[in-house]
Amino acid sequence: MIGIDFIGFIILLIISVVVTAILHFGFKYYVIPGWWSFISKVIVGWIGAWLGSPVFGYWFEGLAYQKIYIIPAILGAIAANILVVDICKTLKS
User: Fold this and answer.
1) Model-level pTM?
2) Is Transmembrane helix found in the keyword set (predicted)?
């Protein structure tokens, strides 16, 4: 997972953008509104998606590209975004 190719990077980026858009714009789950908050959460979501397969496991060979498994990547992006927003809300108050 350390050396992923460009297609793997794009897959993780798409997962991160979709998950972050749903959390940020759909559920209004953020510390501060705005595009900079969205972009920072896309970066956090990408890291969470990248760590999703090693942390949550390797599920469903049919939904995988090399070592990137889609469902654990989605769960990792969700978990990372929720964790960072909760930590920021806790420290802010």
Assistant:
1) 0.91
2) yes
